[in-house]
Amino acid sequence: MLAKMWQPGQRMDITKIDEDKFLFQFYHNWDMKRFLQDGSWLFYNFMLAIYKLQFGEDPLSVPLNEVEVWVQIYNLPFGFMSEEVGVLIGDHRDKFVCYDDHNNFAAWRKYMRIKVATNVQHPLEKNWAFDRVEGEKVQLTFKFEKRGTFYFLCGIIGHWRISVS
Hints:
Elements: H1 2-6, E1 12-18, E2 21-26, H2 29-38, E3 42-43, E4 46-49, E5 66-74, H3 83-93, E6 95-99, E7 111-119, E8 127-131, E9 137-144, E10 149-160
Parallel strand pairs: 2-10, 4-10
Antiparallel strand pairs: 1-2, 3-4, 5-7, 5-9, 6-7, 8-9
């Protein structure tokens, strides 16, 4: 079912390695990159924790305590919709991953979109306020895309290899 959803161009293997951990093997680097960039991934409304396994790592000892999620940030003042501000907001409590520059096509946008790596043991922050230099308060609102159910996390370990023909 997951392979149908992700539609890799080359072969893909899924192996269960523990009660809630699976090893995904992609046979082409492009498929793995697309898989990682297009996430967050849900399976039956449960968010999947993805980790790209490095050669030599033990898949059973890898901590799966972070997930990457897209966040929409609302109520930013005019002129604050930039990647630099996105990095500051993303690193406020989570780890900034990337800025969606495809959402940067109009002079006036309703929200900024960034991807952050967040710890699954912390509650998601829905609001954050800061003071501008001019003295006024700014109250940001966060909307998390495809967040699913955080409480029952299904662990997934990502790994790719290139098949030799």
